[in-house]
Amino acid sequence: xxxxxxxxxxxxxxxxxxxxxxxxxxxxxxxxxxxxxxxxxxxxxxxxxxxxxxxxxxxxxxxxxxxxxxxxxxxxxxxxxxxxxxxxxxxxxxxxxxxxxxxxxxxxxxxxxxxxxxxxxxxxxxxxxxxxxxxxxxxxxxxxxxxxxxxxxxxxxxxxxxxxxxxxxxxxxxxxxxx
Length: 179
Hints:
The protein is an alpha+beta fold. 32% of the residues lie in helices and 31% in strands.
């Protein structure tokens, strides 16, 4: 009877350990790359300084093939730049050209929080969390397409909140390497 109890106890422990391992693997497989990065960097959800060093090929290798290609303009430039958008992560990676070794110019972040601030906030909300800054007038694609921005330097990166509205409604968070 005691041997049977020991065997049942060992099988239960073995099954529970294997079950936990399978459950952990299933949880890991269902996480988006952003969630995996967040687990790796709990203080800063995503290490944008490392992401900005990636090439187009590296981004695809890291985040996978479930992306949408497009184009965009960037601040004070007439050039149209290629993009890769990852819907799950809500990142748009903007590259210098179409080549697979092209380096990142900027990352447009639609869903991550940076020190309590997210895309979509207006300038008053952003200033209340990150500090007072003067709103700067700029343009996108052509000088006739006016935009407004707040810019902050944090941890060696530039965080720009850009909007076509003077009050910053529906701002877009754009991260670039610091100057």
